[in-house]
Design brief:
alpha/beta; about 15% strand; six-stranded parallel sheet; 9 helices; Rossmann fold; three-stranded mixed sheet
Length: about 230
């Protein structure tokens, strides 16, 4: 049976939002010191997200303070995985922080406190971890590319089939954290110019393969063949 793969897409024709007057204090809201890294895990806390691999990587980095910020809630599939992660984090001395109380789908206020959107978080991130074991596609990956972030990715099946072969440059894991991934992450965190070049390449590739324009072209082709 002939088929056409319709990927997840994003509006890469519109430049990503930058730090503005609303979100300029986001790092301060996280109590981050100027020399501390903002390592972002922009997912829910569920087992298939493989967050233990992010823990393993960060625990081996030579950085001032080892901490990971998770943006979404931990209760979607019960709290057992979250409790296990917290125990593991304690053992490897990584501070695992859930900040879903600060980040919602849209900007707002709650009890007199500022609430940020996820898109307020991305521009501040020094590293985005996305070590999923499996995904339907990977919306958060496209968002991290859109915001020109340095990204850690686990090679989940859909990534291997439809994303990885296209030439993107990430820090790749293959189900575990190896020395090469740690060394690459450490080197890139110290080389913002190289990260900029990687991000520029990734953005261009995403625009070529995962933009609204690509979706429109594919749908036109499919509909014209009915």
């Amino acid at each position: 049976i002939a088929s056409e793969v319709i990927p997840n897409v994003h509006d890469f024709a519109t430049p990503p939002p930058e730090v503005d007057s609303y979100n300029q204090d986001f790092r301060e809201a996280l109590n981050l010191e100027p020399d501390e890294l903002f390592i972002l895990q922009p997912t829910r806390v569920i087992q298939r997200k493989g967050i233990e691999m992010a823990l393993g990587l960060v625990s081996r980095l030579d950085i001032p303070k080892k901490q990971i910020f998770i943006t979404h809630q931990a209760s979607d599939e019960g709290l057992e995985y979250w409790r296990w992660l917290k125990r593991e984090a304690g053992m490897v001395r990584v501070d695992l922080k859930l900040v879903d109380h600060l980040i919602h789908t849209e900007r707002s206020t709650a009890n007199g406190h500022k609430i940020y959107s996820l898109w307020d978080a991305y521009p501040h991130a020094d590293l985005v971890t996305y070590p999923s074991i499996y995904e339907g596609f990977g919306n958060a990956l496209l968002e991290a590319i859109y915001f020109n972030r340095l990204i850690v990715i686990n090679r989940y099946p859909v990534y291997n089939a439809d994303i990885g072969p296209l030439g993107f440059e990430f820090i790749e894991l293959d189900g575990f954290v190896d020395d090469g991934a740690v060394e690459k992450a450490q080197a890139l965190l110290a080389d913002p110019e190289q990260v900029k070049e990687m991000a520029k390449k990734n953005y261009a590739l995403a625009q070529e393969y995962f933009s609204y324009e690509v979706l429109e072209k594919k749908l036109r082709t499919i509909l014209s063949n009915f």
